[in-house]
Every structure is written in C-alpha cells, then in structure tokens.
Design a protein that fits this description.
The complex is a heterodimer of chains A (about 260) and B (about 375). With about 260 residues, chain A is an alpha/beta fold. Chain A has helices at about 45-50, 75-80, 95-100, 120-130, 150-160, 180-195, 205-210, 235-240, 250-255, and strands at about 5-15, 20-30, 35-40, 60-65, 65-70, 80-85, 110, 115, 165-170, 200-205, 215-220, 225-230. Chain A has a 6-stranded mixed β-sheet, with helices on both faces. In chain A, strands 2-1-4-5 form a 4-stranded antiparallel β-sheet, covered by helices on one side. Chain B has a single domain (about 40-380), classed as Orthogonal Bundle (ABC transporter involved in vitamin B12 uptake, BtuC), CATH 1.10.3470.
C-alpha cells in the first residue's frame, strides 16, 4: 500500500483540564473516502480542526506524504493542500457564486494602472467547475443565497478541488440537508474521490457514511474505537460503536433500527 | 487568455447549449436590469426631481445657480456617504464622522492660523491625525470585539469634547477665523477650495447661455463661475469607491468581511485589515469634507459636522445598503446623497416651512428601505 496522503498518529489534545482527544489515529489515502463517525462530543470537531491546523495537538504527530509536519495556522494547512468545508460557514449568501468561488484568490486582470478582477475568466471557470459537479447555474452572478443547502456545499467543495486540495475535510455536510440534496452531496463526494483526492467525511449518520465510505473510523469519548474497511462491518455494528455499545439495545427495540 | 479558455472549453466540456434545466425559470432581461441594489435610490431620485420640478420650477431651483446650490449640498453628503457606505458593507458603523469633521477643521485652523504653519502642512497634519484616529477606531473594534456602534459612539463624544477643549484652550473661542487669508495662494488649499472650468463658465456667460451679474462689483461675471472642487472630490470619490468595490479583489474582500467575517477568514481573506482600512477611509472622507468646508467658509468651528454621521448613514441606506453589512452600492449611496441634498434645498426653493424637511426625509427613507428590502430578497433568495 502506498503512503497515505495524511496520517495522524496518537493525537492528543487537552483544553486545560479537559482531555478532548486521547490518542486518535487516522490515515487518509489518495482517492478514498474515510468516514469519521461519532456521537456529539466524541471529539470529531476537535480532531478535524487539528487536521486543518486550527488547533495544534498537545501530543502526537501529523505525517504529510510520509513526512512529519506541524501546522501552526489554518493557512499553513490550506497551503499544504488540506481544505476544510465547514457545514454552515462555507459560503456567504449575499454574494454571487463567482465572488464566493474565488474569495481570497480572485484572478487579476491589468487595465492600465488598475488591477481589476478578471470576471470573464472567473465566471467561465465557475460555470465549468459547477457543471462538472453536476450543478447548472442560471448565471454565475446569482447570489449563493438562492442556492439550496446541498448546492452551497457543492460550490464549497468545487472551490476546494479547483484550488488544488489534496485532502478534503467535510464537516457534517449532510446533516442539515433533505433526502435529494443529501444524495447530490454524496454523489459529489464520489466524483471528488475519483479525482484522487482523499476525502474525510464527518458524520453521525451511518447510512450516509455507508453510502460513500471506503473506510470507517469511530470516535468515542476522545478515542479511536477502531477502523474498518468497507464490507468488513455492518451498519448496525457501526451504530453500536458510535453509541458506546450501551443504550443501543433498548433503542433498537423502540425505534426499529431507524436511527 | 480568458478568451482562449472560453473557446477551447474544459476537457469534460461546459454545459451544452440545448441542455436547459427545466426547473429554472427564465428571468427576463428587463427584470434582471431592474433588480439591482441601486433601484430604490434611482426611483427615489426620479421621484424627488419630478416632485420639485412640479412645485418649484419657477423658483430658480433649476437655474445654473440653483443647480450649483443643491449640487454642492449633495456633494457634501456624497463625500461622507462613500466612506460610510464602504464601511457599512464591510460590516461596521462609524458614528464619529460628524465629530471627526469638527475635529479636522479645528486642527487645520489651529495649525494654519493660530500656530502660523503653511496651509498645506496644516492640511496634511489634519489628514495624518484623522487617519490615525480612524485606525484606532478600527483597531479597538477588532481587538475588543465590541460592536463598532459602541466604540465609535465613544469617539463621537471624545472627539467633539476634544475639539471644543482645544479651540477654547488655544484661542478662547470655539470659532477660529482667518483661514481664507492663510489659504491664499496655497497649492493644497486650492485642491480643496478652488474651482475648475472657470474659463468655460466665463465663455458661457459671454455667450448668454448662463446669466451674468448686471450690477455690483462683479458685474459682467457669470453667476456661476466654475465647478467647486468639493463637487470634483465627490465625483472622484464615488468613482473610486465604485470601482474599488465592484471591480477589485479588495472590493470582494469588503463584501466578504461584512457578509460573514468567519467564512471569509476560513478562505484566507484578511478581514481585520480590510475593516481597519475602511475605518481609516471613512476618517479620510470626513477630513476631505472638513477641509473643503473650512476653506470655503474661511473659518473652523467646534460644532461643525453635527449629525453628519446619521445623514451619511441615511444616504447609504437609501442607496440600498444593508445595515448588517455585506451588501450595498456606492452609486446607490451617491444617489441617496443627491436625494438628501435636493430635498433639503428644494424645500427651501419651494418656500416650504423648513421643519417639514425632516418629515419629507423620513418618508423617503421609509419608502426607499421598503423597496430596497424587496429588491434584496429578490436578488438573494432570502425568505
């Protein structure tokens, strides 16, 4: 097996006296979708923020292409190709799709002494990239606020891919979406994976994870409960691991396994 | 380069022309052209001009002197509205604009008249001090995380108090006169207080296109002898602000900083720098206003610029900007300023009781904001 794109080994993160992560190890290979599952408070958010350079680990190491790295800032991680799409902070609704797509990296065209945004190029690329993700925009100037939640996630994903992400971290991209929008986002994840990008898909929904995941890692109370390959584990087992293996027996009866 | 991209297309190909999504309703180009942030202020401006054309046509409001009269007032509003507009789109307010006008004016008069420095140096000192205060405003807002409303409200009082204190302490008066003599022949003062196209207006007067004075010591001179630099500054700032906001990378960052600062930070936009620079730009605009005013009046007074911060904000809001930031238009704000100036001077020309000015203004503000809210919802799909 080739070297993973990114590998986090025995990550610990303490916030004062609180131990948020207590030895978490996850690796992401090129072209795979690695699902990170866990209930609320399991440490998923802390872990991906560590991967994205927002937090620095108290202990443990991060290996990028087999070489140890330290991400001191989020910018550092972004430059190394680690892109994160946050659930509700991906897009600015009042701004157009193009302006959002290029935010912070606007293409420049020189007109005399002026350095203006090259809107012709920006619009064209935005339309093309969105079409590639299966979204037909009415016009690139349309405000992101007019898009559905799933489409907004897709714009954010397309943006990260276009700007050369090697690892794409998706923070609960489907948790606020309806059925059809969810399937659109899952289809987008599949397209991204086929480009050879490593996807880290955070969710607490086992069915969404099972739909696209190649490997599954379950977090509970700041620790890794183990990693399983697709086909090696049943949804019920994942569900049980996430809930800590305790209350689920009673839940299963009353809800009929529909959680 | 972008041309080539367009023609060769992408490997997977762009969307084919005939493949149209049936769920997307065709939007008529007329509707598309109409639905823009400035629409409310365009309607307002047309309405105001029609109204005053009907009631004050014979009063001289639309004669050359009349036009100059309300243009100067509108230009004053426009200068501070451009700064307030960009700052508001970046998601912040500045309530210290009015106090800043008084403060900068007194600084100029103090250094040029009382302390005897050359005029150009006094003006430069005023700008440097103002930019410093603008930076401090922004730095405090960013550092403390407090609403800019509160921080700049504090500066509204601090600056006004300091202005009166400095004036009284140095000259025992709250008005410092004699600026006109100090400004005589100064190159930088002319940039703020001069007039351009004088020759053109003399020619227009000679041709009888505009009337000339018939008596007095200015007999034979045209009634309007040039375009005041104040108007040139206003037009210049509006063009600068419009291009900056809509066409440049920095403009995109202004929208992003006000639209959602956190989302902007995640994509690497230097939100803090953008906001602080916009506070400094607002202070710059206030000082342009103050300098023009001081040189025109020939004096500086500690109570100048009272309530200007609200007039600037009202112009911006009439122009379609969103109070919460992230949305707005400099051209809209300029039209808002035009409405403001035309209404204020128009009621005077029409001989209407001047207290009705505020009633009229309030009504326009309300109508414009209702229309703007509707337009914005249409554009952005807010529900």
């Amino acid at each position: 097996m080739s070297t993973p794109l990114i590998e986090l080994v025995d990550i610990e993160k303490h916030f004062g006296s609180v131990i948020a992560l207590n030895g978490v190890s996850v690796s992401v290979n090129a072209g795979e979708c690695h699902c990170l599952l866990g209930d609320n408070g399991a440490g998923k958010s802390t872990f991906i923020k560590t991967m994205a350079g927002v937090h620095q680990p108290t202990r443990g190491k991060i290996m990028l292409d087999g070489k140890q790295v330290v991400f001191s800032t989020a910018r550092h991680a972004i430059d190394a190709g680690i892109a994160t799409v946050y659930q509700d902070l991906a897009m600015i609704p009042l701004m157009s799709v193009t302006r959002n797509f290029w935010m912070g990296r606007e293409p420049i065209r020189k007109v005399g002494p002026l350095r203006l945004i090259d809107f012709e190029h920006a619009n064209q690329v935005t339309m093309d990239e969105m079409a590639r993700m299966g979204i037909r925009l009415r016009e690139p100037g349309q405000a992101v606020g007019t898009l559905s939640g799933g489409e907004r996630q897709t714009v954010a994903i397309a943006r990260s891919v276009y700007f050369g992400a090697k690892v794409l971290i998706l923070d609960e991209p489907t948790s606020a979406l309806g059925v059809r929008q969810t399937s659109n986002v899952l289809a987008t994840i599949d397209k991204v994976r086929k480009k050879g990008i490593g996807v880290v898909f955070i969710s607490h929904n086992v069915r969404h994870a099972m739909a696209v995941g190649d490997r599954f890692t379950v977090l509970n109370r700041g620790q890794t409960l183990g990693t399983a390959k697709r086909g090696e584990i049943k949804p019920e087992e994942l569900q049980e691991l996430m809930a800590g293996g305790q209350e689920l027996a009673t839940l299963e009866g009353s809800l009929g396994g529909t959680v | 380069m972008s041309q080539a991209d367009t023609q060769t297309g992408s490997p997977n190909g762009g969307p084919p022309e005939e493949d149209v999504d049936e769920r997307i309703r065709e939007v008529s180009s007329l509707r598309k052209a109409l639905v823009r942030p400035e629409l409310g202020s365009i309607c307002g401006a047309v309405l105001v001009f029609v109204f005053f054309f009907l009631i004050a046509r014979d009063s001289g409001m639309f004669s050359p002197e009349g036009i100059l009269n309300w243009s100067v007032v509108s230009a004053q509003f426009a200068i501070i509205a451009v700064g307030a507009c960009l700052l508001m789109i970046a998601g912040e307010f500045d309530l210290s604009v009015g106090s800043m006008i008084g403060f900068s004016g007194i600084i100029i008069a103090l250094f040029s008249v009382t302390l005897g420095y050359p005029m150009w140096l006094a003006i430069i000192i005023a700008f440097v001090v103002a930019l410093g205060i603008g930076w401090l405003n922004g730095y405090l807002v960013i550092r403390t995380g407090l609403p800019s409303f509160i921080v700049t409200l504090a500066f509204l009082y601090i600056l006004r108090g300091l202005t009166i204190f400095i004036a009284i302490k140095t000259t025992n008066k709250t008005i410092i006169g004699g600026v006109r003599d100090a400004a005589e022949g100064d190159w930088l003062a002319a940039v703020f207080g001069g007039k351009i196209f004088k020759g053109l207006f003399v020619w227009l007067g000679d041709q009888g296109i505009i009337s000339t004075f018939v008596a007095g010591n200015r007999a034979g001179e045209p009634v309007v002898d040039g375009i005041p630099m104040l108007i040139v500054w206003a037009i210049g700032l509006v063009i600068f602000g419009h291009i900056l906001l809509t066409r440049t990378r920095f403009g995109n960052w202004i929208f992003a900083a006000g639209g959602d600062a956190q989302a902007a930070r995640y994509t690497g936009v230097p939100v803090n720098r953008v906001k602080i620079l916009m506070f400094m730009f607002t202070a710059f605009c206030a000082t342009v206003f103050a300098t023009c005013q001081v040189i025109e009046f020939g004096s500086a007074a500690a109570d100048r610029g009272l309530l200007k911060e609200f007039e600037a904000i009202i112009s911006v809001v009439i122009g379609g900007a969103l109070l919460t930031g992230g949305y707005g238009s400099v051209v809209g704000a300029a039209l808002g300023a035009l409405i403001f100036g035309v209404v204020q001077q128009g009621l005077f020309f029409a001989g209407v009781e001047s207290s009705l000015f505020r009633v009229f203004l309030g009504v326009i503000l309300l109508l414009a904001v209702i229309l703007n809210t509707y337009i914005r919802r249409t554009i952005t799909g807010e529900r």
